[in-house]
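User: Here's a chain of 391 residues. Predict its fold as tokens.
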Amino acid sequence: MKGTIALLFVVTVSCLAIQETRAQQAPIKIAVFAPMYLDSAFKGNNFKLGNTNLPKYLLPGLEFYNGVMMAIDSLNAEAVNAEVLIYDSKQGEKELQEILSKQELEGVSLIIASFNNRNEIKRLADFALSKKIVLISETYPNDGGVSENPYFVLINSTLRTHIDALYKYIQRIHSTDNLIWVKRKGAIEDMIQGFFTELQKKTPSLALRIKTIEMADSLNQQTLLAGLDSNRNNVLICGSLNEPFGNALVKTLADNRDYKGTVIGMPTWDGFKDLSKPEYKGVEIIYSSPYNFPRTDKVSVAITNKYKNKFQARPSDQVFKGFESMYHFPKLLIKHQDAFLSNLSDKSYKVFNEYDIQPIRFRRDSPIADYLENKKIYILKKLDGQIKPVI
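Assistant: Prediction complete.
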């Protein structure tokens, strides 16, 4: 492995040495897990998808991997002493267990993971706990049923944390507007509204006055329009994660320009492409995200240009997430070493985002954190295709 990079896709494992191991100092060892679905793309050594476009389910993991690789190039340029092991997490339960039992994982100090299935989270989190390895979970889904595991770190914050940030934003900016909570019938919708109601009861200041409009399933424009006020700013709060429902909410304001309004969406709207439709021009859309990728700073532009030159495509947020996690956290690990877990919010090597990583305890008197969570939430405004943080 000295001074080389070996891509072993055929055995579902890629092993990368960032630089030659210095004799006087062992490299830090990092494992990366991403859902790349290599079995879907390769049969033995042969690529089996031909010249057709890659299936959409392959893209998020592949883009995350590409971002990780670009970060490795940057760390290489800085002569960072590290070894990185990259695994495809989509090889089935048996294969994952075999990976976790491999001798090569001995000495790993950091795991970075991009999950897309809740059932995969706890298995890897339990392994990290047993080995006392910090596990950085970069993507949705969130906790995966993890508890009593202070080594499990959620960068993509939980829905409760997002609702808390959105409530504070509404209280600060829109408290005197015509506030309407719009929801579908459903258990998840009831849970989301429950979070909001709980905040209403706990707030030390005057509680927000919010009307609720509940739809049976799909959104009915006439029912919603009956609750709007032509003389005030109308704030429509989407109390559902259902994308078509959220889209219909935005469309209502776009179709009825006589009403001045703002739509406040859920954190899942971060990747909602329909929000960029030209017919939605002029509609102010607000949503929350733990990520803010401005794409205009020096690092973003460099990544974008390099990605376009290599892949003839525009990098998605997954590329930036892969880059940021692979660059930021290894640098913090090298700086803080044994105190790494206590310094995850250190801004020394900020790439794009700030983190406020706090212990979460299901019981207040518990001496052990159930997990660590990023509490830094950006409130983003999307207007005429442009996205800017408002808080």
